[in-house]
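hey so i finally got around to running the thing on that chain from the lab meeting. sorry it took forever, my laptop kept dying and i had to restart like 3 times. anyway pasting the input first so we r on the same page abt which one it is
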Amino acid sequence: MSCTNGQSAERIVDVAVIGGGPAGSTAATKLSKLGRSVKLFEQTQHPRFHIGESLLPQNLEIFEELGVLDSVQDIGVLKPGADFTTLTSEAHVSFRFAEALTPQFKHAYQVRRSEFDHLLLRNAQEKGVDVFESYSVQDCDFSNPDYVEVVTKDADGAVNRHAARFVIDASGRDTFLSRRFGLWERNRQHESAAIFSHFRNVQWRSGEDEGNISIYWFEHGWFWLIPISREITSVGMVAKPNFLKASPGSIESKFQQGVEANPALKARMTNAIRDGQMRSTGNFSYSSNKLFGDRFALVGDAFAFIDPVFSTGVFVAMRSGSSIGEAVDIYLADRSSGIRALRRHEAEVRSMLKTFSWFIYRFMEPSMKTLFMSTNNRFQIRSAVISLLSGRYAGDIDFRARLFAFKCLFVVLEWYRAVFGAKQPTNSRLL
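ok and heres what got predicted. didnt touch it at all, straight out
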């Protein structure tokens, strides 16, 4: 059976992937390596600008699986860890990945996303994926029981129709199928917006902390500072939408207002020169109320996104992209087994997001700042948190017990703050 576009017949492929970011490229590559025929539709032409430049150590295992680890190393800046600075702290506190519980990888990389995404997309193509760039997906018709008709428009405006047995939506924040099927839900627990750009001449950390992602708290949110090359540093401000709406002027002036409120960050940006336009994005946090349905699945940001603070976006996208590839392969071989595999996949993704979310939702609380600014490692609780920051979201009882102990300390400090207010200690010795 075929699907026609009025000029030529199209064979039915196993899978159509919407989106050529990390989630889509990973899923497509995985399926192609499993012997499936795959078409991938990317609405832009790579390379293209994107944020989310900070990767996690757990990404490295996926790079090895895809065969791109050496290539990522060539384009990346070595990331030994993350450091945090509050408005009142005299120095930053570093969380080095080498100090995690039984670290599998002791570093990660920071990358320019235009180069990184392009690398992953080309790798998918080399692995047998049929890649269509500057092809925007206009519609997906599920009415035929034998295939899904994917309608695309290319850069010249020509409409084409493609047939696939299964569709993976990796459209990122466009959330194509999630919105179409009414699955998209705003995350009311955690609303934020961001202003960001690339800069030259930003001062890096020195010594062991060179290459860190730096996080700066301020009254209304936080900043990221990510070295992505020797010349360029990504700097972004994440804040409550109400703060950004209340701040007068352009997004450039709002950004500068935030920098001025952070003396330590301001010092590192004394000689900074913006390289490219200042950009902004609305509410970061959303999710979908289901991950898969009849002959479709959502992956990466097309399913959910919580917040960029712990650099989990690319890791979740690629980890779920690899996992969904395995589940869809099973689905295409046997529908009943495939549905069970997709359910297991969804449970894993939701568990992963839940684990990271607990910390992210509380990141702006004074008690969380107190705990993060502590340098003690009593009972290896801090090491467990570093494991989480490395991308570890599940593990043995020791890991889970230490994360639980951290949560208990947070609750105790919150109680202390509620009872004694400003008397809460600023440099907790509890860890």
